[in-house]
# Entry
Amino acid sequence: MKTYTKSIIAFVFMLINAMLYAQDFQGVATYKTSMKMDFKMDSVGHSQGIDKEMQEKLNAMLQKQFQKEYTLTFTPYESVYKQEEKLEAPTPQSGGMTVMVMGGSQSATLYKNSKEKRFAHEQEIMGKKFLVKDELENKEWKLENETKFIGQYTCYKATRTIEVEKMSSISLNSDESKEPEATKEEVTVTAWYTPEVPVNAGPGMYWGLPGLILEVNDGSQTIVCSKIVLNPKNKVKIKEPTKGKKVTSAKFQEIMKKKSKEMMERYRGNGRDDGDGIRIEIGG
# Structure
């Protein structure tokens, strides 16, 4: 029965897909993100007076930093995912703590081409623009029978297991040689897609399902579609980003780690001796 259901979904997807591709099918989807935060301070943090109440305030500030809105503009094979522009919020502060988030710039633009299985991600770090160009990973999804409605759309569940690196604590130790504590663990990513919008696109780097992905949860971050406009009156234009220093995904991760370390070293050298409090930097 399960195999039969999957076959029906695939058949309906291909049928509607063929019809809509001929009609120059396109659309715009709006997504909202939220992040579950549960960082724990090390012994140095506790010794500096960061109690349970202040730690809860920190988690609340971090959650607010990751509440963002994005638009996904898509055609049958291409899509552009971009954060909605708005006035930058001031850097959150509480009880002498300052939270800095690396990455996630409002100017960042993610282009995906599912036909050619490639992407281009234009983003800025510390005033320098990079253009990450690489292949789209064709990760396999497990299609489930479970369904639910998101708005007016019937969505089907899909899952996959990935390995991620998670920071287990925030270190305030002045020892520059000590790296932040992090562990690798397997997490289950749950996605909900609708064959009623027959494109294999989705928010962020998610793609490859027989229908538009409307919701994703990886245990920490949740991305939910709040609005879809199909075939808008003003035709959408998919423009691949071209600005910035060209690097691969692996190289960009190296750069991110290096920049993060530089920022921490700069703070340790100048920021803690003036009594201004504690700065915490999180990779975005």
Remarks:
- Residues 2-92+106-248 form a domain with the outer membrane lipoprotein receptor (LolB), chain A fold (CATH 2.50.20).
- The chain has one domain: 2-92+106-248.
- The two ends are 42 Å apart (CA to CA).
- Confidence is low (pLDDT under 50) at residues 272-284.
